[in-house]
Amino acid sequence: MTLSWFNIVRLGLVQMALGSIVVLTTATMNRVMVVELALPAILPGLLVSLYYGTQFLRPRFGHDADQGGRRTPWIIGGVLLLALGALSAAGAVWLMGASAPLGIAAAVPAFLLIGLGIGAAGTNLLALLAARVDNARQAAAGSAVWIMMIVGLVATAITAGILLDPYSPARLVAVTGGVCAIAIALSLIGVAGQERGPARPAPKREAKFTEIAAELWGDTRVRAFTIFVFASMLAYNLQDLILEPFAGHVFGMTVGESTQLGGQHHAGALTGMILVLLTGSVLRRWLTVPTRVWIIGGCLLSGISLVALGLGGQQAATWPIAANVFAVGLANGAFAVAAIGAMMGLAREGDEAREGARMGLFGAAQAIAFGLGAFLGTAAVDVMRAIVESDAVAYGTVFIVEGAIFLVAATLALRITAPRKDMHSTQMVPGE
Known about the structure:
Blueprint: H1 5-36, H2 42-53, H3 58-68, H4 72-98, H5 100-132, H6 138-163, H7 169-191, H8 209-218, H9 220-238, H10 243-251, H11 255-279, H12 291-312, H13 321-347, H14 355-387, H15 391-416, E1 420-421, E2 426-427
Antiparallel strand pairs: 1-2
């Protein structure tokens, strides 16, 4: 059964649910630990690293779903695990107020559950989309579900922010419980009946995960695409935690102004995602933009915009930083969702269903790159500020290196998205 746009949007409800829960754990609880409880900022950083650490298991989650032939139980089970982890994390934060060691001890398994839930649900959600969305719609479908995730992030952040004022540990647990309940309901609505009808055949033989992993890594295109995903997502996230400090140190922006600048980046990313969605759906009859153009063009524009940002700090008094940051976001958003569409296309190749294992491999590369990027970006700025006196040079060097990685990723994308021909057929790689 090929998914209609209505059913694609329904599956987007699951992505919205995942984002809604995660934003509470990575943003709200992070702030409470550092501000209200006056704990070291490294604590939430280490807890989030536990979540990222579990993403090595994504290929295994996808493989096991491939073998079973159904993804819905994995999606629902993952959302339930995520909700349990989030509630446990809220309880752990409450406990930290009475006893920091006990609270931290309780937070460790909670964040492990969060990571396991995200891995199981997120991997198999994308695998389900890969298996049941037409090739021509994949980039647009990726845009749609990611836009819905952003809507979930924004809606939860605003609503939770209102409900948590004035803050108390009990309020945090209650709000988290309410968000989790809504997320579970949305997920059930999203997956209901989505696996009805004929699907691609499940693997004909029971295969060990190690065998499948070796087969995947032995596939030169899968390996090349995994490396591209890692490189591009590493570059994507290197600036995440340093953009607003850069605005403050180099451009003299206040907290409110730098927050608005971060909003410019998100607005640009959302615009890029919408452009990919429109050209793959509403405007497709009049304007067709191949997915590979979005991927390569997005990486090139990201690299150029970041190099410009790095150099612009030298001319802070006159540099149009808001427009520059919007351009970075626009390029980031377009390439990211187009790359997800290409992931789905490559994941569904072959005669047997291997979408879960392949999507798990790509998802693990993405998640690990995100975690590593956040750490390396901040560490690199600290090192550069210790070496050079100029903040503009320190931050600018990191942005330029980030831009260079994007340009390398564009070169990788150019190679792996090129048309492929053989003696018997003309086969285009995913995303054409």
